[in-house]
Amino acid sequence: MLDFSGCVDDDSFGPAVRGCRDDFDFTIKFEKIFFSLIPTSIFIAVALARVAHLTRNPSIVGGSLLRAAKLIAISAYTIIQLALLILSITKSRKFASFFIPSDALALASALCMLLLSNLEHLRSPRPSILLSAYLFIALLFDIAHVRTLWLASTNSDELVLSRLWTSGVAVKASLIVLESQSKARWIVRWDVKEHSPEETSGLYGLGAYLWLNRLFLTGYRKILDLHDLFPLDRNMSSEVLQTRYAGRIDVRQVKGKHGLARALTKALAVPLLYPVGPRIALGAFHFCQPFLIETLLGYLERPASESSQNLGYGLIGASVLIYVGIAASGAFYWYYQERAMYMVRGLLVGTIYRATIEAELTAGGDSEALTLMSTDVERIISGCLNLHEFWANTIEVALACWLLSRQIGPAFVAPLIVIGACVVCSAALAKFTGPRQKEWMGKIQKRVGLTSGIIGQMKHLKISGLAEPVEESIQTMRVDELNSGARFRTVLVLAAVVGFTPLCLSPVITFAFAARTLDVTLIFTSISYITLLATPLGTLFQAVPQLLGALTCLSRIQAFLEKEAHADFRSFHGLPRPNQATAEEKPRPESLNSQTTAKVKVTNGNFGWHTEKLSLRDIDLEIPSSCLTIVVGPVASGKSTLCKALLGEIPVSQGEVIMAPNSNRKIGYCDQTPYLSNATIRENIVGFSPFDQQRYEEVIEATMLGPDLSILPQGDNTNVGSNGVTLSGGQKQRVSMARALYLDTDFYVFDDILSGLDADTEEQVFLRVFSSTSLIRRRHATAVLCTHSVRHLPSADHIIALGQDGTIVEQGTFQELLANEKYVHNLGVTERGPLLGDDSVPESKKLEKSALKALPRSKPTAASSKVEGQARATGDWAVYRHYFSRIGALCLTALVVLGIGGGFFLNFGTIWLKFWSEDVASPNPSRFNGFYNGVYALLQTGALASLFSVAMVGFRSVVNISGAKLHREALNTVFNAPLKFFTITDTGVVTNLFSQDMTLIDGQLPMAMINVILAAFACIGMAAVIATASPYLALTYPILFAAMYVLQMFYLRTSRQIRLLDLEAKSPLYSHFIDTIKGIATFRAFGWIQEGVSRNDRLLDTSQRPAYLLAMIQRWLGFTLQLIVAVLGLAVVTLSTQLRSNTAFTGASLVTLMAFGENLFSIIRFYTMLETSIGAVSRLKSFSENVKPESREGEDVVPPKEWPLKGAIQISGVSASYGSDDDAQGETASPPEHLALNDLHLDISPGEKVAICGRSGSGKSSLLLLLLRLLDPLPTSTSMTHPPEITIDSIPLSKIHRPSLRNRVIAIPQDAVFLPDGSSVQSNLDPLGQSTAADCRSALEAVGLWDFVASRGGMEAGMSPETFSQGQRQLFSLARAILRRRARARERAAEAGEKVVADGGVLLLDEVSSSVDLDTDGAMQRIIMQEFAGYTIVMVSHRLGMVMAFDRVVVMEQGRIVETGRPRELAELEGSRFRELWLVGNKGRS
Question: What InterPro entries does the annotation carry (predicted)?
């Protein structure tokens, strides 16, 4: 019979048995309830729910042999359980009420296992986590129960029962092995390369991070790239996250404070709840440590003869369970927590992009979206990482207080006093956290946005001579940002000190209250409870500012998402036929034929960018379908606003804009400022559209790009660079036009896209795109062209003339408007003859097919984005030296000295407790308790002071000094980089340096360095304290340190590389954000919204891969180090129980061991963080070293202040190429077909006015760049034996300091540039501060802009370039040049005294009037001739009207000077190239 009568205590609840089995066992009743009934019942309930879920999934896995083995093993287990049930029913008496229900539930669980295992195998890609968890827990319980049964068995029936249970344990063990096998090889339609091994890992693979092993091996053996990394888990991909959760975080539906935070928590509730279970287990294991310490010290205090050997073995087993349990539960907790955080990142970045692409044009700039998706999201992840610690630590603090009260009685109130004070301090600090972080983030956003925008404008900045003021302005913003960040970091430092205060001071105050009852066990057990009380509090106090910072960032994102989205006010319901107009409608313009259908109709339209100031008023017009409509008007009359209104992009609109029925929503749109991404010409033209060779060649020919492509080094595979820096203004406009024409649509809108073209190219492009036989006509498409080239008006089917006040002056056909004798009539344009046909196009203009060959493309690569060779894996100490040199010896010394002090004070206090406890326990104490507690208080206070000091030095001094210096160096590198750098470097790469890398240098890098210093010295002391428990333990340290060294070497080789990949993978994502923001109107017009979103999702997933894997391998490291701590704990307990160690030293060792694991993990984790975040310094160092400055050795001559006084220019045998190496000294010139300038010879006399003409891409702007040393001449000439040379006033430009050259030569670029948004009008006009407000006003009056500026606040008002039209921006640039000329004249006069000084110099003009109307063009010409009468002027212009007043004209073709002479003489000379241009440009003019 199954009576188990050998122990009368077995039928009691227990839990421990008394009077038998050496008093070291549980009772049978307790085991049946807690080891069998409860876990089995829970499993059955959860298993049935899982089965119901799996039945809805399809079968995806094969592997019949593995499946059969599982089913056979479970069937065997089921038979054993059936036998046990039968035995229990027939034989049990005393324990029948427990045996029978227990075995019945076990049989039911076996049947559930049979069903669940089969379904899990067939329908889930990973091994069953539920089965694995249940089998593992049940196996542990069963082992304990089997031991009890064997020890309690006294008859044959009981022995049979024990044998059956033992068999069941063996089968369960085999089931664990079978259920943990990967099924990846048998999954149907499963490409391993497209899936992460994480997706097919089971419980043990996930918990021990075994799925990362292959990555570690790969990283150890080779240099990793993105292709070596595991794909992102499908459930974490952006597309899946947006599909599942995007609707739940719509902030427009969740209003109020922290609405986004609430919505995000609700949406991701399940992933955020996964860590709860492991966190509870982790807390439970932590609280087992004081019980272990108390029991062990009590065991050691008793004589060996009175101690049970089994209790010693039990303590060893308990130590294994506790320390391994801490490692395992911590591993699962952080795995699920990191996974949830990166789901948050993917969801937020994807949502920010979608809001960006749907935002109004005026809703934000680069800085806002870029900063939100980078810096803000990263701070949200770091701030929310400890989210579960708030509830868990609160519970642990309460529990620790209760346990401490049981230990020391009323004295437990003492630490609560300290805690209360800390809570008050923490609450006070919390008030500063949000505002200070918000201020800091705002300044980061402003600086990053400005830097991002400046990169694409670098050429024009240098031409304008604004590079140095802008560089200084950005550096000033950086210093201001660092100061704001220092104020926020001070809050973090104080929060850390508050967090450590309970740990340092609570024991002191507690022992002061409980001094009379202290002994060895009480002291060290109390310390363990205080550690459990103070450690979570420290985490809480430090996590509060981080969480508040995360909430601030979430609020910033919420505010961005709540902004008004772009609302397309256009109606696509269709237009009535002309004869269906109602009585209420205004009469239609009589110019449209009665049978013509309108493509667009605008009724009572009022449009503008601000509610208080409309740009267009009372607009009533119709755009005829399949016709060409030309819009003309003076500067700032609203032409660009009208284009945006046709696109539905104006934020302020009234009236109706109705599109034709069945109208294609895609519109081929060309902005006035061409939007180009940093890609090849072909990629820019094709965009997201499918490639069609015939259509592609068609648009290349129509836009006259063939000749340009034929002279480019890589044809249409040439990279255009940031903002198209490789291309001329005309080429950029034609590439933009080709992209619009390539789009499959029937409606095109072109905003002033002819302004940058020479007369010949403009004529040919107009002929091929807009004429009666053009590409658009053949497609029966509708086109709207806004232009200042009024000579094309006779070709228009419909003309709309806008007035200065934003109203329509007149509209109709050309003939009708001529008869009106209004605006169009006054332009002096006459009816033109028939346009040239295609056959008359010169052969040189025909499409060059060779230019369209798929030439090999050298992908854009930044020197800054790579750390060469093995340095990626093994690190580079030169980087540390570079960083330390930027910190300074004083700060570095202070950090080390304070770190040593912290390590000493923190650990010697524990040793002091050993001396105190032994003295207290002795019959005759040598000192009173006050003495020991006073010294202890001094040591603890010293530890706290050391922490505060090292943190303040690190987070304030180190960050401010190194941050400013490293930023200055990187900024200087960018501003001194040659133009070629901006053609081969993606904007996102450079932006990443100033965003992500600077964020690391300001935050993660100093934090890692400080923590490494503190943890390293703390661990050295802790190791010494732990070794005091047994001298034998110290013998294991060399082995332990060797193992850790191998571990970190193995780990660091991979983590370094993945961190660098993480930084590099973000650059394309940043670039795509920048491209989208700059070209948002183009994206929406082209219908590229979904394609842009899809590309963003792909790039986001790519950037998530290294970031997520880096987080996972850091958690793998934590798990591995906790296992090392488990080994140490096992060693301490084993040696102390078997060798009977000193009780006080053992207590000190075990108390220290509680924190040793965390500190050990901190050393390697923070050292790894240091190694990976130092990658930011490495990237900046590599950037500064590899990006060679444009200045060369010997260019150090700074001319006298009055230079150039005469302005004599001489160019002798100069050739230049954009594709040549900047440092190619002594090499031969590039092949002629790739030269931007070819063998130039040009002499310009002082004061001479020279115009440079030629077709677009002929080298005109390159000549100006050459004079400003933005384009370097080749070292040898193609036709001369002596070196080429350029001189101004007899000084060779090759010897002049380049910034000085650009400051002395006044130049106006084609695209106007300005100081950062918010800078005053006066500072923009006079960036060097050389003139008074009156002087600035006078310059603005000279160009006719003063009234406009005055209406917007005057000189001191903040200036936003977006409020100026394109023409007004060019006028502003002219005013700046006038002001510089006048300031220079005053300076020369002041130095000369009474002597008369000639007002001379050099003025370079690059298409300064391309975006103004003819009247303004004439006014600008008069102003230039009057203001710069004594200057040598070199002007590039396509408007030949301005050229006729010049002394000489130089005609260029394919980089050569083909003709030179007086313009009027050449215009009358038959066969001259200038005459051809003149005739084309004046066709149709009276």
Answer: AAA+_ATPase, ABC1_TM_dom, ABC1_TM_sf, ABC_transporter-like_ATP-bd, ABC_transporter-like_CS, ABC_transporter_C-like, ABCC_6TM_D1, ABCC_6TM_D2
Q: Are 912 and 905 in contact (CB under 8 A)?
A: no
Give the length of the chain. Answer: 1486
Spatial contact of 1428 and 1459, defined as CB atoms under 8 Å apart: no
Query: What tens digit of pLDDT does each residue of 909-922 get?
Result: 777 877 777 777 67
Residue 1486, helix vs strand vs coil: coil
Dihedral sign of CA atoms 10, 14, 19, 25 in order: positive
Percentage of the chain lying above the pLDDT 70 cut:
88
Whose CA is closest to 1248, among 1403, 1414, 1476? 1403
737 shares its domain with 749: no
Examine residue 597 and state whether it is found in any structural domain, yes or no. Answer: yes
The residue type found at 1013 is I
Show which of 190, 217, 234 is a domain's final residue: 190
Mean pLDDT over 696-700 rounds to 93
Are residues 87 and 29 both part of a single domain? Answer: yes
Number of domains in the chain: 6
Residues 1388 and 1418 occupy one common structural domain? no
Rounded Cα–Cα distance for residues 630 and 640 (Å): 12
What backbone torsions phi and psi does residue 271 show, to the nearest 5 degrees? Answer: -60, -35
Tokens, residue 738: 């080709």
- Alpha-helix runs per DSSP H in 687-832: 693-702, 706-711, 729-742, 759-770, 775-778, 814-820, 823-826
839 contact partners, CB below 8 Å, separation of at least 6: none
Packing angle between helix 1089-1139 and helix 238-245, nearest 10 degrees? 100
The H-or-E segment that residue 425 falls in is: helix 413-456
> What is the CB neighbour count within 10 angstroms for residue 146?
18
Arithmetic mean of pLDDT, 587-607 = 67
Amino acid at 376: D
Question: Over the stretch 1232-1286, which tens digit does the pLDDT of each residue have?
Answer: 456 788 888 999 999 999 999 887 778 888 898 889 888 888 876 555 556 788 9
Residue 1027 lies in a domain: yes
Residue-averaged pLDDT of the chain: 83
For residue 993, which of 1100, 1066, 1078 has the smallest C-alpha distance? Answer: 1066
Contact 1397, 1213 (CB under 8 A): no
User: How far is residue 71's CA from residue 77's CA, in Å, rounded to a whole number?
Assistant: 10
Q: Where do runs of H (alpha helix) occur along 1271-1329?
A: 1298-1304, 1321-1325
pLDDT, residue 520, reads: 66
Give the pair of three-digit tokens for residue 228: 């070596």
Which tokens sit at 850?
């060779």
Indicate if 1481 and 1377 belong to the same structural domain: no
Which strand (E) or helix (H) includes residue 1213?
strand 1209-1216
Whole domain around residue 1120: which residue ranges?
A: 204-484+492-565+883-1186
User: Among 698, 726, 743, where does a domain finish?
Assistant: 743
Contacts of residue 1352, defined as CB under 8 A and 6 or more positions apart, other chains included, come to 1363
CATH number at residue 471: 1.20.1560.10
Closest CA to 450 of 439, 436, 461, 438: 461
Q: What is the pLDDT of residue 837?
A: 42
Are 1059 and 1182 part of one and the same domain? yes
CA distance 1135 to 1030: 7
C-alpha pair distances (Å), 623 with each of 391, 499, 630, 650, 1086: 65, 69, 10, 18, 19
| Dihedral (Cα; 1380, 1385, 1390, 1392), 10-degree rounding | 140
